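Per your request, structure below.
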């Protein structure tokens, strides 16, 4: 029985790794590639604009261009069909997993982006938060730290094979988390009790822990996830 359980965990980990790294290596060409390129440029604009003291005329010209581009995007068809889920905890199609997420999406300019991988049953995450994420002077806003933990722990609980949604998330802020520094997340599944999946993680800069988290996820039947998709399609 123990051997079967270990094999099941390994299979789930392999599947999760396959989903993540498979999507990471998917060749993005055509409009998809340009969308990722544009999102990357917009991240740099957002980061630099927050602290910029550019002259008024340059900012005015840039705003004119941005406003025209925003209007032009409104002239094109918007995607009606969801690709899947835009978060790691319950990603369906890996395209949505990567490209739409506000935390890890390569085509979402809101994303830092946070990069995740699984090794030996442990989730490893890396991210650099720029000036747009500032809370205390020179440090990351606590809300973004919490959002990142939700994503990291959500990815961890997906290894259970029966992923669900966040039931509760508890963050302990040990010390301020700096901006513009390479940050590392570590997360694991601690135990599973029926539909309840208990996870925990740490956030480190160098080897110093700046925050810790505990997350409880409630496994949700696939049919309920499908119902959410259908409801979203009807609303759109």
């Amino acid at each position: 029985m123990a051997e079967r359980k270990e094999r099941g965990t390994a299979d789930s980990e392999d599947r999760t790794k396959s989903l993540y790294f498979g999507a990471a290596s998917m060749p993005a060409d055509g409009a998809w590639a340009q969308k990722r390129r544009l999102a990357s440029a917009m991240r740099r604009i957002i980061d630099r604009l927050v602290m910029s003291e550019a002259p008024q005329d340059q900012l005015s010209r840039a705003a004119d261009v941005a406003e025209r581009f925003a209007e032009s995007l409104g002239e094109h068809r918007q995607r009606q069909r969801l690709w899947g889920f835009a978060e790691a905890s319950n990603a369906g199609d890996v395209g949505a997993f990567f490209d739409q997420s506000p935390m890890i999406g390569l085509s979402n300019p809101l994303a830092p982006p946070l990069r995740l991988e699984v090794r030996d049953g442990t989730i490893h995450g890396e991210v650099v938060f720029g000036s747009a994420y500032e809370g205390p002077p020179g440090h990351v806003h606590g809300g973004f730290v919490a959002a990142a933990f939700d994503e990291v722990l959500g990815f961890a609980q997906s290894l259970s094979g029966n992923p669900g949604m966040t039931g509760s998330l508890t963050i302990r802020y040990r010390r301020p988390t700096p901006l513009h520094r390479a940050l590392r997340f570590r997360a694991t599944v601690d135990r599973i009790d029926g539909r309840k999946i208990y996870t925990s993680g740490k956030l480190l800069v160098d080897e110093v822990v700046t925050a810790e988290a505990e997350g409880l996820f409630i496994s949700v039947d696939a049919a309920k996830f499908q119902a959410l998709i259908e409801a979203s399609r009807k609303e759109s």
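The chain has six helices and six strands.

Regards,
D.
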